[in-house]
Amino acid sequence: AAMGAKLLCLFVVSALLAYYIYTPMPEDFEQPWKTMLIMATFKAVGHLSEIADQLGLLHYMDSMMLITKAEYVAPMSDENVTVTDTEFSNVPVRLFVPRKASGGLRRAVIYFHGGGWCLGSAGMKSYDHLARWTSNMLNAVVVSVNYRLAPKHRFPAQFEDVYLVTKFFLRSDVLSQYGVDAKRVCVAGDSAGGNLAAAVAQQLLEDPEVKTKLKAHALLYPALQTLDLNLPSYQENENNPLLPKHLMVRFWSEYFTSDASLREAMASGTHVPRESSHLFQFVNWSNFLPEEMKKDHVYASPTFRSSELAQKYPGFLDVRAAPLLASDAQLRRLPRTYVLTCEHDVLRDDGVMYAERLRAAGVPVTHDHAKDAFHAAMMFVLSPFELAVGHRLLNRYIGWLNENL
Known about the structure:
The structure is a single chain. The mean pLDDT is 92. By secondary structure, this protein is of the alpha/beta class. It starts with a helix and ends with a helix. Strand 3, helix 4 and strand 4 form a beta-alpha-beta unit. The longest helix has 23 residues. It is built from 16 helices and eight strands. Helix 5 packs across helix 7. Helices cover 43% and strands 16% of the residues. One of its GO terms (molecular function) is carboxylic ester hydrolase activity.
């Protein structure tokens, strides 16, 4: 009987492992097993966080934050770059300054990490590596910002932190202190950080105190709107383990409140009040997506409910949280733009629509669409999860910065 019990245990464990590790992969993925392993890890962490949250042991985001903490590396200078943790305008930043002599003024990138406004840090191995690589390849000063995170801090705290840092860095005395050319500064970010980069670039245009103009902004698989969380990309990638729809909805709602009623309304698409219906023109995918992305999807008119949630949490209709809600007149003044989107990503259509709208407004846009990539693929350029596609995307992004900054 003991033998039978052991066999049963082994069978159950194997079945669970197989369930975790096996994720059906699109045919065009290179390294499917490595990708599956990444997906399985994220699936497991998500489930464990969910259980801890249900049992009241740990807030969902606090469990998820353990990944961020496990990935932390101290600021370490190397032969090419001096790395320090410091503060700009009372906001913590990790600063990367090239060591090699520069024949003149340098370029600069102000970078905002991803993590759904709840997770991540400039000190995570992948973000440290990305900033170091950027600084090294471009001989540029890189400012990687540690903005405040939800659930402890809600919108607009995250935006305010990155905005303060950008504004501080763009002061002429600060630029000259770091030997940076005022005409060659860009903001960049991935995912929630791409959201913040777009919001910062837009808000700088409205700020009479800022004399220095950004040269460019680069958005890597950004989240750009809260109105329609049922776009074709959300439907097609609803259960993608890396960023399933329920997690993106959770990130969005946590950005504004812990009130579960906002999360539920966002999940069912009933959070936008009728008086905001005019905003849907800016996110109507049937007007902005290319034919091959529309596939068999049919645009459904939004469902409107009472305005109670929007009155309580006006943040989700604020252009600083949802940069895709900017008018064409605002978009027209933006600097040249790089947008990276991944086919297998709920956020794909946000980026595609932004690129389309910017292009229509006359902004020089480079839109890189990675057909064989999933959300956050660029972050997997470090072992043990080193992905060839991550390297390819990283090189495209750095290449664009090199030519356009």
